[in-house]
Amino acid sequence: MIYFVSTPIGNLEDISYRAVNVLREVDIIACEDTRHSKILLDHYEIKAKTIAYHKFNEQNSADGIIELHRQGKDIAIISDAGMPVISDPGNILAKKLIENDIKFTIIPGANAGLSALILSGFDADKFAFFGFLSEKNKELKRQLEAITNFHGTRILYSSKYNVNKDLSSLYSALGNVRVAIVSEITKMHEKTEFVTLPYSLAEPKGEFVLVVEYMAQDQEEITDELLLNELKNILKIEDKNTAFKILQKKYNLTKSYIYNLYEKNK
Question: Which of 24, 78, 99, 215 has the most CB atoms lying inside 10 A of its own CB?
Answer without folding.
Answer: 78
